[in-house]
Amino acid sequence: MNRIETKKIKIGNVTLGGSNKILIQSMCDIKTSNYKKVIKQINECARLGASMMRVSIQDNDDVSAITKIKEKVSIPVICDIHYSLDFALKAIGAGADAIRINPGNINNNDKLNVLLKIAHRDRIPIRIGVNEGSLKISKEEKKDNEKIAKALVDKTLEYVKYFEEHNFDNIVLSVKSSSPDVTLIAYRMIAKKTNYPIHIGVTESGFDEVGIIRSISVLSPLILEGIGSTIRISLTKDPYKEIITAKRLLHDLGLYSNYPTLISCPTCGRTMVKNIKVYCEKTLKYLEDNNINIKVAIMGCPVNGINEAKDADLGLAGAGHDFIIFKKGKEIAKVKEKDALKALFAEIDTFKKVK
Ligand code: SF4
Q: Is the CB of 272 under 6 A from ligand 1?
């Protein structure tokens, strides 16, 4: 897949942009001062596949926590700051790997200039994250998604120009809206106008499937067009699901190989086995938990099932009230439904060893 090559930006021990792979990020949903829990969450997110995590900074207790957090985590920590640039400066002093600000929430150019100077000196990147909510858009403009997107992009580029005029180009950009259409237009527009790495995501996208569908409706086309150096699937109160979903998306688009593939049929009147959805869930979990990155199929019947899934490494296909286990399209065993998962997992383990 062709990717639009951008300037490279180093955040802590990772490099984003250039032709590097798309990195997954999320944000802690715990107050940063509660540093023990934050450390645990960041480390779990890193285990699941996050390359960097964002934390919010609202007060001095949050700032103080940064040093302690940095000692115990191995991925970069980005400090998210609204309104007070004093906290941005303090966060850099405490060891933040990058800062995210929405300049629309900051009205003090003198302080911004100081921040740019210090961030430049310490080689700390700043993400200019402009969201639709912080824009002043006329009622007329609001009726037209193209105009909203253009306003988002123009405002972002205005800040970029300001940063550059102050000798600062260690920049990552994002232009988010809760409207998938506006977000899509804005990212396509800004990708044509700048060479800085872009963080893509939909803001306030919602919870669970609501947020997943909304996010993916935007991220898939952008990624396929080569846009985006980092991604976030924003989901209400669920950073772990954010990361797993991002990983699945990148995997399905052929950009993340370190992940299993599970395929399953929708089932139909030919399906006689009972708990096929549970087997799908348990099989994917088994593959994920054991880091076994093979392709497994769970099918409701052998009529179409084995043939349709013949490129799977292993699979189960309902056969009446029993199951057939198949390997690369060939039946290798027949088992009772109650024994099917155990038998499949044993075959998966053997396959992994041979592989
Ligand atoms: S694989 Fe079999 S059970 Fe599944 S949808 Fe196709 S015909 Fe129906």
A: no
